[in-house]
TrEMBL record:
Protein name in the entry: CoA transferase subunit A
Alphabetized UniProt keyword annotations: Transferase
Molecular function GO terms recorded: CoA-transferase activity
Organism: Eiseniibacteriota bacterium
Short name of any one Pfam family annotated for the protein: CoA_trans
SMART domains per record: CoA_trans
Superkingdom per UniProt: Bacteria
Record InterPro entries: 3-oxoacid_CoA-transf_A, CoA_trans_fam_I, NagB/RpiA_transferase-like
C-alpha cells in the first residue's frame, strides 16, 4: 500500500489533526525532531494541544514554535531546560506540564504501543513522582493550581515500586532518516530513542523522512519500524538540524 503524501500539510489534512489533540513528537534535544510537521502544525493553527516529547525544543525552533503561538495546552516531557519561553509560560500559569523521568517516559510510551495499560518501576519511589504534589499548573501569583496525584506503590521481593500508566496519543509525528513508500522506516543513531516507540503508540502515525525510496530498496535487517505502524509518509527537504546547546572547549595554554 502506497502511503506517500505530498508534504506535511497534506499529511495533517489526511490525518485529521484537530484542536485538543494529543500528539507525540519524536526527537532527543533537537535531533530527530519532525521539523516539517511542527511547522505545518503551527501554520494549521490548531490549539489546546497536548504534546508528548522528550523536551520542548528551544525558544525559536522545534516545539518552541508552537509555544510561541500559544497552541500548546499541556506538555508531557522529561527535560525542558533549554527553553526560556517554556519556563515563563509554565511559571506564569499559561502552560500545564507533566515532568516524567526519562526512562519512565520511554517505557510509558513503549507500553502504550504494546497494549500494556500500566507497569511498576522503582524510579521515583519516595519522591513527588510517587507521593504526588508535583506542580502541573501554576496560578499567575505563583501558587500551585494543579498538582500531580499520589500513585500506587507496591512491594516486590523486598523492593518498592511505583505504578505508572502507559501513554498513547491521537497522533504520532516521527522523523526518520529513510523510509519507503509503504511506510517502513530506518532511524539514524539518537533519533531511534523515541521515534520507533512513538510510531507504535500513536493512533495515527505520520513519518517525515530525509530520503524516500521504493519498496524493496531498504535492507529488511535495517528496518526499525515496520510499515504497519505508519499511516502517512512524506519526504522533507532543507532540514536545519540545529544543535540545542553548543559548548566550547577552552584553548590549551
Amino acid at each position: 500500500m502506497d502511503k506517500v503524501v505530498k508534504d506535511a500539510a497534506e499529511a495533517l489534512a489526511k490525518a485529521g489533526v484537530r484542536d485538543g489533540a494529543t500528539i507525540m513528537m519524536s526527537g532527543f534535544g533537537l535531533c530527530g525532531i519532525p521539523e516539517k510537521l511542527i511547522a505545518a502544525t503551527k501554520a494549521l493553527g490548531v490549539k489546546d494541544l497536548t504534546i508528548m516529547s522528550n523536551n520542548a525544543g528551544v525558544d525559536d525552533f522545534g516545539i518552541g514554535l508552537l509555544l510561541q503561538s500559544r497552541q500548546v495546552k499541556r506538555m508531557i516531557s522529561t527535560y525542558v531546560g533549554e527553553n526560556d519561553l517554556f519556563e515563563s509560560q509554565f511559571l506564569g500559569g499559561e502552560l500545564e506540564v507533566e515532568l516524567t523521568p526519562q526512562g519512565t517516559f520511554a517505557e510509558k510510551i513503549r507500553a502504550g504501543g504494546a497494549g500494556i495499560p500500566a507497569f511498576f518501576t522503582p524510579t521515583g519511589y519516595g519522591t513527588q513522582i510517587s507521593e504526588g504534589g508535583l506542580p502541573i499548573r501554576y496560578n499567575k501569583d505563583g501558587t500551585v493550581d494543579l498538582a500531580s496525584a499520589k500513585k500506587e506503590v507496591r512491594e516486590f521481593k523486598g523492593k518498592m515500586y511505583v505504578m505508572e500508566e502507559s501513554l498513547t496519543a491521537d497522533f504520532a509525528f516521527v522523523k526518520a532518516a529513510r523510509g519507503d513508500r509503504s511506510g517502513n522506516l530506518v532511524f539514524n543513531a539518537t533519533a531511534r530513542n523515541f521515534g520507533p516507540v512513538m510510531a507504535m503508540a500513536g493512533q495515527t502515525t505520520i513519518a517525515e523522512v530525509e530520503e524516500l525510496v521504493s519498496v524493496g530498496e531498504l535492507d529488511p535487517e535495517a528496518i526499525v519500524t515496520p510499515s504497519i505502524y505508519v499511516d502517512h509518509i512524506f519526504q522533507g527537504t532543507d532540514y536545519e538540524k540545529r544543535i540545542e546547546q553548543r559548548t566550547t572547549r577552552p584553548k590549551s595554554s
